[in-house]
Design a protein that fits this description.
globular, binds NADP nicotinamide-adenine-dinucleotide phosphate
Length: about 250
C-alpha cells in the first residue's frame, strides 16, 4: 500500500483553507466536503441539487466546523460568464482559493461504440471535460492568490486504459488526465499543484448505475478513500504536482 493511502491528517490540517468541491451533494464529493470541513477548511459546496447541498451544509454546521458556502450550479448549462461570476464572488468573500476538488461528473450511457448517441456523447464531454476546464480557468486567479493551492481532478481506471462499451465516459476521463498534465506542466514552477485521483470502485450511485447487479456491500465506501483526498489537499503534498494517484490499494 502506498503511504498516501493510509495518510493520517492532523485534526487541523486544513485550518484556514478555503476549498471548493464540485458534486458536493452526493457520493465521493459529499464525503470529501465533510472530511475537509472536519479538518478545519471552509468548504464551498457546488452542485446541481440545492436540497442535497443544503443537507451537507447543515451537517457541517452540526459538526461545529467553519460555516460552508453553497453554489447551486448545473455544469450542463453553465457558461463561462457563470464561472467568472462565481470566481469574482469567491475573491470578494475569501480573497483566495486554497483547494479545488473537481469531482462532479456523469457516466452517460454505456454502449457499444457503434451505438454511441451524439447528444449523449456531447453532454458527457461537456460536463466531464469542458465544464471542468471552464471552472478551473475562471478560478486560476483565486488559486494563485493562495500561498500553496491544490487542484485535484478526478479520473477513473477507464481513463488510463480504454475498456469496451465505456465510450464517452472513458474518453472524457482520458481527457481529464491530459488536462491535468497540461495544467501541471504549465504551473510547475508556481505555488499551485495539480494532481489526479482515481477513486477506484466505490459504493455510490454512479457505481450502481454502471454495475446494477453487483453486491455493493463488498465495495469500498467514499470514507475509505479519504486519506488520499486529505493528503493531496494538505500542505504535506505541497511539493507534489503532475501525479495521478489511486485512492485504493490494488
Ligand atoms: P455520484 O454519486 O454520481 O455523484 C456525482 C456528483 O456530481 C453528484 O453530487 C451530482 O449531483 C454531481 N453532478 C453530476 N452532474 C452534475 C452537473 N451537471 N452539475 C453539477 N453537479 C453535477 O458519483 P461518484 O461515484 O461520487 O463519483 C465522483 C467522481 O468519482 C466522478 O468524477 C466519477 O467519475 C469518479 N469515479 C467514481 C468511481 C466509483 O466507483 N464511484 C470510480 C471511478 C471514478 P446530484 O447529486 O445532484 O446528481
Amino acid at each position: 500500500m502506498q503511504q498516501y493511502q493510509n495518510y493520517q491528517a492532523p485534526a487541523d490540517a486544513l485550518a484556514g483553507k478555503v476549498i471548493l468541491v464540485t458534486g458536493a451533494g452526493d457520493g465521493i464529493g459529499r464525503e470529501a466536503a465533510l472530511t475537509y470541513a472536519k479538518h478545519g477548511a471552509t468548504v464551498i459546496l457546488l452542485g446541481r441539487t440545492t436540497a442535497k447541498l443544503e443537507a451537507v451544509y447543515d451537517e457541517i454546521e452540526q459538526l461545529g466546523a467553519p460555516q460552508a458556502a453553497i453554489i447551486p450550479l448545473d455544469m450542463k448549462g453553465a457558461t463561462e460568464s457563470h464561472y467568472r461570476d462565481m470566481a469574482a464572488t469567491i475573491m470578494d468573500q475569501f480573497g483566495k482559493l486554497d483547494g479545488l476538488l473537481l469531482n462532479a461528473s456523469v457516466l452517460g450511457v454505456l454502449s457499444p461504440f457503434g451505438h454511441i448517441n451524439l447528444d449523449s456523447f456531447q453532454e458527457v464531454m461537456h460536463i466531464n471535460v469542458t465544464a471542468q476546464m471552464m471552472i478551473t480557468k475562471a478560478l486560476l486567479p483565486a488559486l494563485n492568490a493562495a500561498p500553496a493551492s491544490s487542484v485535484i481532478f478526478t479520473s477513473s481506471g477507464v481513463g488510463r486504459k480504454g475498456r469496451a462499451h465505456w465510450g464517452a465516459y472513458a474518453i472524457s476521463k482520458f481527457a481529464t488526465e491530459g488536462m491535468a498534465q497540461v495544467l501541471a506542466d504549465e504551473y510547475e514552477s508556481s505555488s499551485m499543484r495539480v494532481n489526479v485521483i482515481n477513486p477506484g470502485a466505490t459504493r455510490t450511485k454512479m457505481r450502481s448505475k454502471a454495475y446494477p447487479a453487483e453486491d455493493s456491500s463488498r465495495l469500498k465506501t467514499p470514507a475509505d478513500l479519504m486519506p488520499l483526498y486529505l493528503f493531496l489537499m494538505s500542505d504535506d503534498s505541497k511539493d507534489i504536482t503532475g501525479g495521478s494517484f489511486d485512492a485504493q490499494a490494488s
